Amino acid sequence: MCGIIGVISKDNNNVVPDILNGLEKLEYRGYDSAGLAVVGAAGLKRIRAVGKLENLINKLKINPISGAVGIGHTRWATHGKATEENAHPMLTRDVVLVHNGIIENYKELKSDLLKKGYEFTSQTDTEVVAVYLQMELDNGLSPREAFQKMLRTVRGTYAFLAIFKARPDVIFCAKNKSPMAIGFGKSICVGSDASSISASCSEIVYLDDGDYAEVTKDGATFFDDGFNVVDKPRVAVTDDLINSGKGGYSHYMIKEIMEQPSAIRKTLLGNDVPQNFFDKVSRILILACGTSYHAGLVGKYWFEKHLRLPTCVEIASEYRYRSPVIEDDTLVLVITQSGETIDTLEAMEYVKKNNNTCRLAAITNVLNSAISRLAGFVFHTEAGVEVGVASTKAFTAQLTVLAKLAFCENFELLGQLQNLPQACEDSLVLKEDIDKIAFRIKDCSNAIYLGRDNLYPIALEGALKLKEISYIHAEGFAAGEMKHGPIALIDDIVPVICLCPSGSMFDKMFSNIQVAQARGKNVIVFTDFVGAKSFDKSVKKIVLPPINQELYPILYSIPLQLLAYTVTVLKGEDVDKPRNLAKSVTVE
Ligand code: M6R
Q1: How does pLDDT run across 455-474, given as a tens digit for each residue?
Q2: Pocket test for ligand 1, best of 338, 374, 467, 579 (most atoms within 8 A of CB)
Q3: Which of 287, 425, 545, 553 is deepest in the core (most CB within 10 A)?
Q4: Count: domains in the chain
Q5: What's the CATH number where 58 sits?
Q6: Would you say the pTM of this structure is higher than 0.85?
Q7: How far is the CA of 356 from the centre of ligand 1 (A)?
Q8: CA 292 to ligand 1 center in whole angstroms
Q9: In what order do the strands lie in the sheet containing 95-103?
Q10: Do residue 217 and residue 73 come from a single domain?
Q11: Percentage of residues in the chain with pLDDT exceeding 70?
């Protein structure tokens, strides 16, 4: 996590506004603190503030700094609390550094540096790198020699940007497992993602693991892990990389919820399944985390039912540590919005190392991300940049791709998929009804979500949405499992949110709801016109438009997202930047 940005002005202009602009785009990666440093007339200058970027901006108004070369950082704390001392950039006498990642051997390096008389002002792993560079400068190495030696010494994951007092014209950059892109245009910029540097750059180079680069206002020199100069291909900045702001909405999350009909429409237009894609595939393994894992669970229902392929869905962070059996002829499908979740990436690497007969494909929202570059085949969810930490449009776009895959031999269902964007559009007008339900939930401490069949994963996802942004403890259950334990949680207060449209599971789900109603007074049902007729006034109902039963998971996700959003707004919490979370999870 953490976002890093570096900017060099070609015309000697002050780069602080560009750094702040980039940090704003990167805040989704962490917002425990923010800081920046520039090379000014008086050497290296740094400013840092705890909390969100606006605190840094306010501090800069009182103590402005400026310079034509600078670096910035937005932090998601790993080592050391969210304090100003632990905020990046880390500054020593002659070098300033920002870092995204984790230095695994920082303890031994620190104890060595302490023995040599060097002092530390923070609890971070990053400061060890800055102090190490200082030591090598003190030993007489040049900035380049010190930087290269440091890269040979540290172990772990990193994207580093460093500026040395002795080379104020250069930003030294290096990457291992944490993302880094270098952009060329009005300025030369380096950032954790393309969106953060797209405002002033028209072309981008993505660094690979082990690469390092020296960036000046004249361009960049790239080195491979043997420190040989290499060429790197430039790609044009495209619209899908650009975060176009909140578009008049009060939060990114609601904007992204509203964008779902168009995201699904665009995703349906592309992503045709290549002929013979499933040839020689005997089973499917899905690897993912969080919301993407829930998409995978829906995929399992669909793949087994429609393709008759045994499908296993694994939480990526667990997968590689339990010596899993990887059978031949497995299609490994990785699902990830960001394309850089480290757990998912590592699980994928594990498969690659342990069975070379497996076909690796990814469903991702970010082309050129680490995972899309590692996968043999990429399905691109056309959701556009997703900024809200709670995934919404990327999730329904992932489901859309999974549906296209699962229904690839079923023309009837492929046809039904075309009805989805309109049905989703119609479901968005339910916001007013959902607002009323939100009032019944906002002061609760717990909530229960129930679903059956392909709506069971959506119960899990609905619960995740609510808990991650509103901090109400919520759990999703397979409705049939209630009687095996969770039913003990039902009382007159706890909301029991039930997904119960008409169709083959209706009667069973209806009975489960009766059982819940017999024990509690706060039962809320999401159903359709046909299903609604079976419920009397004692149940609060939200009535969704009709759609083919196979497509329920996509449609029924939307009102649950709206519910989580509204509850969170009513509680006055920060919808887009919930506490402790970051959008892109690059630490294990
Ligand atoms: O970028 P990814 O899809 O790989 O991210 C996986 C999870 O970190 C992500 O879905 C997370 O659970 C979101 N906060 C859910 O809203």
Answers
A1: 999 999 999 999 999 999 99
A2: 338
A3: 287
A4: 3
A5: 3.60.20.10
A6: yes
A7: 27
A8: 6
A9: 90-91, 95-103, 156-164, 167-176, 212-216, 219-223, 229-230
A10: yes
A11: 100
